[in-house]
Amino acid sequence: MNPLADNPLRTRDDFARSAVQLWQPLKPYFSPGKARVDLGLPSAHFTRISAELEGFSRPLFGLAPLVAGGLPFGDWDMFREGYINGTDPEHPEYWGTFEGRDQRIVESAAIGFGLIFAREKLWDPLTDAQKENVANWLKFCQTRPTADNNWHFFHVFGSLGLEAVGVEHDLTVRRDALNRLETFHIDEGWYADGEARRFDHYIPFAMHFYGLIYSRLAKDDEARCQRFRDRARQFAQEFQHWFDAEGASLAFGRSMTYRFAQASFWAGLAFADVEALPWGQIRGLWARNMRWWGRRDYFDRDGVMPVGYAYPNLHMCEIYNSPGSPYWAMKAYLTLALPESHPFWQADEEDKVETGALMRSPVAGMLGFQAGGNRVMLSSCNEMRMPLRGGAEKYGKFAYSTAFGFSMDPDRRGFQVNPFDNMLALSRDGAEFFTRCEFAEAQIGDDFLWSEWKPDDDITVETWLIARAPWHIRAHKVTTARPLLTTEGGFAIERTDAGLARQGSRPTVAEAVTAAHASLAADLSPRRRTAKVREKVHPNSSLYFPQTHVPHLEGALEPGTTWLIGAYAASTSPADADAWLAAIPDAPTPADLEAARDGAERVRGLKFREAERRLA
User: Fold this and answer.
1) Which tens digit of pLDDT belongs to each residue from 234-258?
2) Is 367:381 a contact under the CB 8 Å cutoff?
3) Is 190 helix (H, G, I), strand (E, B) or coil?
4) How many Cβ atoms from other residues are within 10 Å of residue 306's Cβ?
5) Rounded to whole angstroms, how far apart are CA atoms 206 and 260?
6) CA-CA distance, 404 to 374, in Å (whole number)?
7) Residues of the chain with CATH 2.70.98
C-alpha cells in the first residue's frame, strides 16, 4: 500500500504532507515507552536495540525540518517521550551504552539532528534531569570510535545537536572528525567514502549532504565551510547527470534501500544556499526524483518502507539493513526547513535537458550518456573490499542504468542461470564463475575507459568500454592458461506474462524485446560468439523488476589470448530497436585499442585502496 498514492508531490505543502504520510504507518509499531520502533524481522548484524532505535530516529530527518519550516506535525509528544525514555538509564527502553564501534553512533546523528531542527519540541519542554540524560547519552556516543569513512560525520552531528541546545562539550572530537573527513577529498568535488575506491551515492547523500548542513550551521569555521560549499558546487555539475528526465537516479553501489536519499544532495544545496545550478534546475532534479519514488508502490501491505528498492527484496540488502534502515531516505526532506519565500520554493521546476554530450569523470572512472529514455554510466574503478553482499554486482559491472537498474547474481554455481547483466562471466566448469570485482589498473580517455583485472591467478583481462551512444562497445583481451567458458550479458529488462515480443533472427545479435523495453547485444568478436536470450534468470535478482530477460553472448576460450568484442544498448521504447540495429557501431581493431590505452590518463580514484576487511 503506497501511502503517497493520493499526493501529487508538487507544492511545499504536498511534500510536507508526504513526510507525515510516510511516517504514519510506523505509529502502531512504537514501543510502550515510545523510544523504539519494532518492525519485526528480518535482522541486521547489529543488536535489536540498535535496529529498533533506527526505526525511531531515522524519520526525524524528515520530520524535524517541519518545525524549522513552521509546518504542522501532531505527534511530537511521541518523539519527546522517546527522547526522555531512550536516554534514561533507569528506563527499560534505554538505548544503552556500548564498547567499541556500534550502530548507535550512526543513530546519534539523527538524535542530534532532531535537536538542531526541532529544539522547541524535543528539548525545551524537558525537565533539567531529562535534558541532562539526553546530553549525557550524546556525549557518551562522542567518546566511541567510528568507522573510518562517512561515519565521522555522526560525531559532527552529535556535537552540533549538543551545541544547538547550549550544552558545553569537548569540541576536539568534532574537529578531529572534520579534519579526517577532508583527507578523503580527491578532486573536482569528489570525495571517497574513506580510503576506498567507492564513488557511489554515499558521496552525495553523506559526504556532501552533511558537509552542506555543517556549512550553514557551524560557527567560527568559515574557511572549512567555504570549502564544503565550493566542493558541492563542483560536484553538482557531474551529479546532475546521474538522473534521467523522468527523475530516476542511477542505481549503483551499496545501500540502495535508502531510495530517495538520492535526492538529498539537492536538498542540501538548497539548505546551504548554494546555487550550484539555477534554482529551477535544482528544484526539478529534487522534485522529479521524489515523484519517481512517490509513484511506485514498493511498500509493505501496511505502508511501511521495506528493505529493497523498486519492490521488497532481500537479495540486494546489506548486512547493516534492519527493517528500520530504509527511513534514511527521509534526509531528502531537508528542503522543508526552508521557508516558502526561499528561492528553491519560489523557482518553477525546470525540465532536465539532455544535450547528447558525454559526461566524463576522471576521478570516479565513469562515462555517462543518454540512450533513449535510459541514462547509462560506464564504470571502471569502483570496488567494494568489504565483507558485504554483491560487491561485483554493485560496483564491478561495465554499465549501470537509470531505466533498468542492475541485478544480483544469487547462485554461486549459477553460470548457466544468473543474470550477469552488463558483466562478463568466466567459468572453468560451467557452474562456478569469475566476474570483474577488483581492479589492478584503470585509465580514462576522451570517450573510453580501460581497466585491467585479474579474477584468478592464471587469468588476466583487459577491458575497454567505449561510449557510442546509444550503444556502448566492450572489448576484452582475455589471457588464460586453461580453457574457459564465457557469457556476457546486456541490460536486464522486465519479464511479464506476455513474454518476449521478439528475439530476432540474426545469429550474432541477441534481441530481448518486449512490449515495454528493448535490450540488445551484438557480437563483434573476431571469433564469433553465440547470441542467446536468458528468458528466465533467477527471479527477484533485479533491483527494478521481479522477473527479467537478459540478452547474452556465449563463447569458449582456449588457452592463450582471445579478443571478445560486442556492442550493447537498451531502451524504454521498443520501437528504437530496429533503428539501433541498423546502426550497430563498427568494432575497433586490437591495434587501435592498445594505442588508445597507451595514450589515456590514470583514473584519479585509484589513489585510494581499502584494505580487504573481514567480519569481526
Assistant:
1) 999 999 999 999 999 999 999 999 9
2) no
3) strand
4) 20
5) 13
6) 8
7) 365-607
What's residue 385's pLDDT? Answer: 87
- HSE, side-chain direction, 13 A CA sphere, residue 278: 9
Other CB atoms within a 10 A radius of the CB of residue 615 amount to 8
How many beta carbons lie within 10 A of that of residue 517, not counting itself?
28
User: Which one is the CATH code of 12-346: 3.20.20.140, 1.20.1530.20, 1.10.10.10, 1.50.10.20?
Assistant: 1.50.10.20
Domain range 365-607, CATH class: mainly beta
Cα separation values, 573 from 106, 250, 453, Å: 42, 19, 34
Distance CA 105, CA 112 (A): 11
Q: What is the DSSP string of 222-270?
A: HHHHHHHHHHHHHHHHHHGGGB-TTSPBP--SS-GGGGGGGGHHHHHHH
The span from the CA of 545 to the CA of 496, in Å, is 9
Residues near 264 by Cβ (< 8 Å), separated by ≥ 6? 204, 205, 209, 331, 332, 334
Q: What pLDDT score does 615 carry?
A: 55
- HEC assignment per residue over 56-82: HHCCHHHHHHHHHCCCCCCCHHHHHHH
| Angle between the N-to-C axes of helices 279-294 and 264-271, in degrees from 0 to 180, rounded to the nearest 10 | 140
Find the Cα–Cα–Cα–Cα dihedral 187, 193, 195, 199, rounded to 10°.
Answer: -60
Q: 526, 536, 527: which is closest to 591 by C-alpha?
A: 526
Q: Is the dihedral of CA 131, 137, 140, 142 positive or negative?
A: negative
Q: Which regions of the chain are under pLDDT 70?
A: 505, 613-616
Q: Which pLDDT belongs to residue 35? A: 99
Angle 476-570-461 from CA coordinates, rounded to 5°: 10
CB atoms within 10 A of CB 558: 11
Residues 6+ away with beta carbon under 8 Å from 82: 30, 33, 34, 35, 36, 56
Q: Which of 115, 96, 117, 211 is nearest to 158 (CA)?
A: 115
Q: Which amino acid is at 430?
A: G
Q: Where in the chain is the domain with CATH 1.50.10.20?
A: 12-346
CB 248 within 8 A of CB 303: no
Positive or negative torsion for Cα 26, 30, 36, 42? negative
